[in-house]
């Protein structure tokens, strides 16, 4: 059993004051944890990234919000409501993109190859299986193979397929950047080199499209330079927690890769891609000490690595939800950590938007943009 992380549920949830049609940090943290009632044309279940979410434009910003039928927040009539009270914030669901209606010559729907995130990010998991997916190695918050089991995606996307979909998504739906992630492989590069020909093929089809690649620290750090040379704009090397005890509990397979190895990979990535072109996820609510999380984020910022702070989400199909009964963190903790990390980012002159591509540039899954990070 994983320790419950924070309060969860709707206990203590109160309407938040929102001014000027914008969403404050506390409201954004509340929404990230408690979700909204809504119908969203762009949403999905399981897989990597923001599953069980609906994508909306909230006060002009693309955000991914958990769809929770029991939430006291609701999107109705283009407004955000709390217990039926209009909070004065405009919300528009992201419309279903036109590229979802296309198929490859061999009949595969484009939406099984790549998905729209937020309002203008094309995202895909190039390899939808992970060598760490079997227990006891599997990350307890991960559902990467569930969308494959459900038939919502294909196992391996080829460079040609992704180039075709990217070209259509840019042309038909105004996509501005692309995220390529992958399940890990048993190879020494952990799958990183799978992304190299994909970056090249997409850029041949859509010259200049900013692309972020995401991978585990490759054993051979030269793979990072190969991704840069292929044309990737930014790289995410995601650790999720800097606390070894938390890592052992939540990411037992990945935790066999020592933090020192992550630090070497981040340093090499900053050397190659540049400061603030490298990022990592830090999840709030895995049972870590919030002060230590913030101190760790500050160390990353000092290295030039952007810590993308997001609340842990108990997603369908994950071991955390199905087995452990884990719950989402207290929104007040999410807001506090986010505020402090955003302040450190601002002090260092590191803005998510300056990453060019990737989750920090998108910001839809984090409250950091509302906190000025
Ligand atoms: S922050 Fe990352 S995972 Fe979330 S919607 Fe944006 S690109 Fe996708």
Number of strands: 13
Biggest sheet: strand arrangement: 7-8-9-10-11-12-13
Structural class: alpha/beta
CATH fold naming = TIM Barrel
Order of helices and strands: HEEEEEEEEHHEHEHEHHEHEHHH
For the biggest sheet, the summary is:
7 strands, mixed
Radius of gyration: 19 Å
- The number of helical elements comes to 11
- Second CATH tier, the architecture: Alpha-Beta Barrel
Outline type: globular
The CATH class is Alpha Beta
N-end to C-end Cα span: 34 Å
Question: How would you explain this protein's 3D organization?
Answer:
With 373 residues, this protein is an alpha/beta fold. The chain has a single domain (96-371), classed as Alpha-Beta Barrel (TIM Barrel), CATH 3.20.20. The protein is 30% helix and 17% strand. It contains eleven helices and 13 strands. Helix 8 runs parallel beside helix 10 (331-347). It is globular, with a radius of gyration of 19 Å. Residues 1-12 have low confidence and may be disordered. The structure holds iron/sulfur cluster.
């Amino acid at each position: 059993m994983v320790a419950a992380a924070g309060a969860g549920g709707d206990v203590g949830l109160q309407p938040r004051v929102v001014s000027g049609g914008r969403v404050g940090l506390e409201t954004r943290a509340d929404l990230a944890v408690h979700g909204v009632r809504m119908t969203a044309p762009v949403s999905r279940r399981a897989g990597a990234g923001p599953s069980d979410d609906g994508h909306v434009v909230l006060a002009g910003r693309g955000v991914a919000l958990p769809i929770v039928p029991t939430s006291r927040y609701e999107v109705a009539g283009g407004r955000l409501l709390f217990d039926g009270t209009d909070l004065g914030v405009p919300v528009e669901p992201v419309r279903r993109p036109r590229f979802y209606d296309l198929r490859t010559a061999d009949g595969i729907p484009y939406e099984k190859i790549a998905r729209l995130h937020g309002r203008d990010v094309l995202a895909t998991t190039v390899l939808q299986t992970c060598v760490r997916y079997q227990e006891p190695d599997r990350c307890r918050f991960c559902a990467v193979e569930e969308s494959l089991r459900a038939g919502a995606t294909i196992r391996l996307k080829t460079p040609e397929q992704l180039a075709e979909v990217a070209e259509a998504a840019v042309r038909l739906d105004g996509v501005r950047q692309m995220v390529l992630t992958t399940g890990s492989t048993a190879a020494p590069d952990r799958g990183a080199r799978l992304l190299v020909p994909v970056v090249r093929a997409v850029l041949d089809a859509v010259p200049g499209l900013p692309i972020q690649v995401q991978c585990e620290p490759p054993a051979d750090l030269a793979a990072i330079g190969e991704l840069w040379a292929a044309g990737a704009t930014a790289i995410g090397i995601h650790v999720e927690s800097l606390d070894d005890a938390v890592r052992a509990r939540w990411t037992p397979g990945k935790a066999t890769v020592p933090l020192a190895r992550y630090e070497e990979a981040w340093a090499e990535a900053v050397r190659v891609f540049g400061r603030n072109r490298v990022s990592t996820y830090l999840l709030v609510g895995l049972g870590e000490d919030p002060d230590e999380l913030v101190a760790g984020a500050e160390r990353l910022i000092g290295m030039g690595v952007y810590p993308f702070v997001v609340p842990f989400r108990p997603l369908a199909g994950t071991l955390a939800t199905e087995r452990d009964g884990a719950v989402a963190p207290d929104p007040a903790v999410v807001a506090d950590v986010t505020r402090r990390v955003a302040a450190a980012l601002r002090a260092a002159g590191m803005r998510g938007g300056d990453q060019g591509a990737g989750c920090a540039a998108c910001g839809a899954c984090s409250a950091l943009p509302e906190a000025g990070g």
